[in-house]
Amino acid sequence: MHIPDNYLSPQTCAVMGAAMVPVLAVAARKVKSEITKARMPQLGIGAAFVFLIMMFNIPVPGGTTVHVVGGTLLAALLGPWCAVICITTALLIQALLFGDGGVLALGANAFNMAFVLPFIGYFVYKFIKDRVHSPKGELIGLAAGSFFGLNVSVLFTALELGIQPLLFNTAAGQPLYCPYPLSLTVPAMLIPHLTIAGLAEIVFSVAVFTFIKRVSPNMIFEGAKKRTSPVVGFIVALICLSPLGLLATGSAWGEWGVDEIRDVAVGGQALGFVPAGMQDGFHFFALLPDYAISGLPAIVGYILSAVIGTALLILVFRIISSMLRDPAGRPRSNHASKSG
Question: What 3-state class would DSSP assign to 329?
């Protein structure tokens, strides 16, 4: 689901980036008005959570991989606007530091995974939860929201990729960017997500939500005082288990590098050329590409990358928390100031 650079035209990237500007502006206002200084670090934990869970690759038939996102789960725990900020920040760290997702394509990736996914998922979750008044209704809503949120997000991704050969071609008719039409991108991306990734998203979201509700029930969105220590322990466990993501070999569909796309067989036939826009486009060299550290074993590099990404995300939101002040100019706290 992480669209690399040069799979989308610069024009498409600009449009998707522009679409995310008002979304992020509203999200920032919502978070600033609704989230107290003491609660802000929880957004760092949420961002770290989605960053880590996206490191767990799942193999699917055809030699590619998928991963869960946890966007609906995060929206249920922190609220959809907080999920926008958390997931966008995680995507930014992934792109800049680890080369996971494009820098120019960040707006498109954020639109798909940080906006469409949590809001579609949260709408379905709330729709069912508000009509089935029982604990089962809440979990059914979360399961349905997780499934639909993920797959609608994937559909948007497939559409963005699939329209490229319709709009951007050389004089000879060769695609400049993503070379695969809608007839390939939509089924190739949706089928594994409707089956394997969608089910994994349901299982993971429901399991984590049930765990948090048992050990820290007040952490659910609209709750009161938040107890996060069990969740921090869960984050540490994810870091330790992150090398499991190395077991799945191969790239995710549509995330092949310039050095491999020529020989990738899609629809039973190799492409046979490298689109000019990919070959000559924007290339950003991440510090730790593919969550690897030069000179270290892959497992060690993966764990250290998980630690670095998690620490950065938590640090970012702690810095934001330290800068927050209430309208009167005083630092925010969990307790309302007394009048008189």
Answer: coil
CA-based max dimension of the chain: 77
* Type of residue at 174: Q
Q: What is the mean pLDDT of the chain?
A: 88
Mutual angle of helices 117-129 and 80-98, in 10-degree steps = 150
Predicted TM-score (pTM) of this structure: 0.90
Tell me the three state secondary structure of residue 300: helix
What Cα–Cα distance (Å) separates residue 166 from each residue in 92, 161, 179? 29, 10, 9
Tell me the residue range of the domain where 312 lies. Answer: 10-323
> Which of 69, 9, 68, 3 is closest to 256 using CA atoms?
3
Calpha distance 328→340 (Å, rounded): 15
CATH number, residue 89: 1.10.1760.20
Q: Residue 50: what pLDDT?
A: 93
Side chain identity at residue 179, one-letter code: P
Q: Is residue 221 part of a domain?
A: yes
For the stretch 129-146, pLDDT in tens is: 999 988 789 999 999 999
C-alpha 58/C-alpha 312 separation (Å) is 25
